[in-house]
Amino acid sequence: MTSAIDASLPYASTLCGACFEVCPVRIDIPELLVQLRHEVVEEKKSHSRLPHADGAIFGGASWMMADAKRLTAAQKLASATNRFMPGSGRIGPLPWPLSKWTNARDLPAPPAESFRDWWKRERAGGRS
């Protein structure tokens, strides 16, 4: 992982496993890519004293999803933001640092109703 291009290559795969299925010598390419991704992350950690945005975001997501009440509150908050979304149903480019993610990805707007709310409504309606 000596250059930015080398470090990006392990992320050029979806890790779906199709390459492993067709490899004539049965090289576990997805496993190798996961290992290379790990090495890229460790290399970045060793060169920086500051936490990376990914770590902060995933740490926050982990904390939120670890508790049903926090997750429900976050889902309700996300659904409430729909009224501020453009009619396209997509989240457009966001300000920095979120722009690093949204400039390269097309994100759907949060649903108006969470899965849990839908499930409660459907179950209350007599369906099972």
Name the features.
extended, single chain, 53% helix, 128 residues, 2 domains, mainly alpha
Structure write-up:
There is one protein chain. The chain is mainly alpha-helical. It has 2 domains: 4-46; 53-124, no CATH class. 53% of the residues lie in helices and 3% in strands. It is built from 7 helices and 2 strands. It has helices at residues 4-8, 18-22, 29-46, 53-65, 68-80, 99-102, 115-124; strands at residues 90-91, 107-108. The chain is extended. It starts with a helix and ends with a helix. The model has no long low-confidence stretch (mean pLDDT 84).
Reconstruct the topology from this structure:
Elements: H1 4-8, H2 18-22, H3 29-46, H4 53-65, H5 68-80, E1 90-91, H6 99-102, E2 107-108, H7 115-124
Antiparallel strand pairs: 1-2
